[in-house]
Amino acid sequence: MDFGAIYHFLFETYVGIGVLVAISLVVCIAIAAVLELRTRKTYVDRGPNDDDDEWSFFDDGEGAE
Length: 65
What we know:
By secondary structure, this protein is mainly alpha-helical. The chain contains two helices and no strands.
C-alpha cells in the first residue's frame, strides 16, 4: 500500500476519520492515566483523605476494608 492510499483512507473516508478519532481518544486517555499516576506518586504526603467513601479509578486499595 502506498502513501497516497493510506492518506486517502485516513483523511477522505468516514471509516478512516473514525479510526483517527478512536486512536486520538485512546492516546489521550493513556496520557491522562500516566500523568495522573505520576502526580499521585509525587504528592503522596498531602494528609489524610476526608472523603473515604468516594470511589476512585486510581484507588490503590489501602484502607478499603
